[in-house]
Amino acid sequence: QVQLVESGGGLVQAGGSLRLSCAASGRTFSSYAMGWFRQAPGKEREFVAAMSRGGGNTYHTDSVKGRFTISRDNAKNTVYLQMNSLKPEDTAVYYCAADRGTAFINYVPPSSGYVYWGQGTQVTVSS
C-alpha cells in the first residue's frame, strides 16, 4: 500500500501559479503511476494529469494543456503539479492518486486505474 499526502493548495488570483506536491510513503514509490484529479463543488471528479512510474509518459487533460505540468521525483517519493495561468474554473479540491503498481515503466493508467488516494488540497482562484 501507499499513503499519499497533498500540500501546496491555497488562494491565488487569476493568472497566478501554484505548485502542488504529493508525498508518498513507502519504499516502492517508483512502482506506481501517479495521477492528479480535481473536484469542484457540484461537479464530478475530473482526471487532470498523470505520469508513468518512470516519468517518461504523461497525460494532461485538454483544459490544462500548456498551463499545468505533472512531474515526479522518485528519490523524494513525491509527485508535483505545477499550475500556471490559473483560471477561476480551476477552483477545486485537488487529489493525487496512485495505481496498484505496474511492471510497465511507461504505462499511464486511465482515470479508472487509480486505487490509492490522498485527502485533497483546496485550490481557489479568484477573478
| Helix vs. strand class | mainly beta
Summarize the helix and strand pattern as letters.
EEEEEEEEEEE
Q: Please estimate the helix content.
A: under 10%
Rg to the nearest angstrom?
A: 14 Å
Number of continuous helical runs: 0
Q: How much of the polypeptide forms β-strand, as a percent range?
A: over 45%
The description of the largest β-sheet is: 7 strands, mixed
Oligomeric composition of the shown chains: single chain
**Terminal-residue CA separation:** 40 Å
Task: Provide the residue-averaged pLDDT.
Answer: 96
Low-confidence stretches: none
Shape: globular
How many DSSP E strands?
Answer: 11
Short description:
Helices cover 0% and strands 47% of the residues. It is mostly beta strands.
Describe this structure as you would to a colleague.
It is built from no helices and 11 strands. The chain has 127 residues and is an all-beta fold. The mean pLDDT is 96. The protein has strands spanning 4-7, 10-13, 18-24, 34-39, 46-51, 58-60, 68-73, 78-83, 92-99, 114-117, 121-126.
